[in-house]
Amino acid sequence: MSGFWAGSALAVGPGPDGRWHYRRSLASRVILLTMLTVGLAVAFVAVAAYATARFQMQQSLDASLLERAQDAAGADELLQIGVGEEVPSWALGAGDVRIAFLPAEGKGRVLDDGPDILLGRSELEVAQGKRESSIRTIRIEGERYRVVAVPTEHRPDLALVIAQPLEDQDRILARLGWVTIAFGGVGVLAAGLAGWLVASNGLRPVRRLTTAVERIARTEDLRRLPVEGDDEVARLANAFNMMLTALDASRVRQRQLVADASHELRTPLTSLRTNIDLLTMSGGDAPSLPPEAREELMEDIRAQIEELTTLIGDLTELARDEPVPPTVEPVDLADVVDHAVERVRRRAPDVTFEVFTRPWWVVGEAPALERAVTNLLDNAAKWSPDGGLVTVRLSDGVLTVDDQGPGIPAEERARIFDRFWRSADSRTLPGSGLGLAIVRQVAERHAGSVQAAENVGGGARLVLKLPGTEKVDA
Question: What is the pTM of this model?
Answer without folding.
Answer: 0.43
